[in-house]
């Protein structure tokens, strides 16, 4: 026979692990922040590489922007 699992909502007394929820949300915010910084740095480096005409200089600019964000954020 099938096992019986409690499907009642959490508001009715199901235990919640709030510490784990807070840690997950903190990780989500951190990954969102660094994902945004990385995408922005990549777009700036790509534009610089297109207009300045150099892959190496765009790569250096990307690394500089990421390092600057690491120290400033």
TrEMBL record:
Q: Which residues form a coiled coil?
A: none
Domain Cytochrome c oxidase subunit IV bacterial aa3 type: residue ranges: 4-50
Q: Which domain of life is it from?
A: Bacteria
Which keywords describe this protein according to UniProt?
Membrane, Transmembrane, Transmembrane helix
Residue stretches spanning the membrane = 27-48, 54-72
What is the recorded name of this protein? Aa3-type cytochrome c oxidase subunit IV
- The organism of origin for this protein: Phyllobacterium brassicacearum
Upper lineage is: Bacteria, Pseudomonadati, Pseudomonadota, Alphaproteobacteria, Hyphomicrobiales
């Amino acid at each position: 026979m099938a096992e019986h699992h409690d499907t009642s909502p959490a508001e009715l007394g199901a235990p919640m692990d709030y510490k784990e929820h807070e840690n997950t949300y903190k990780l989500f915010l951190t990954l969102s922040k660094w994902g945004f910084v990385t995408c922005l740095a990549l777009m700036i480096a790509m534009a610089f590489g297109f207009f300045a005409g150099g892959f190496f200089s765009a790569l250096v600019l990307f690394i500089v922007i990421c390092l600057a964000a690491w120290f400033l954020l």
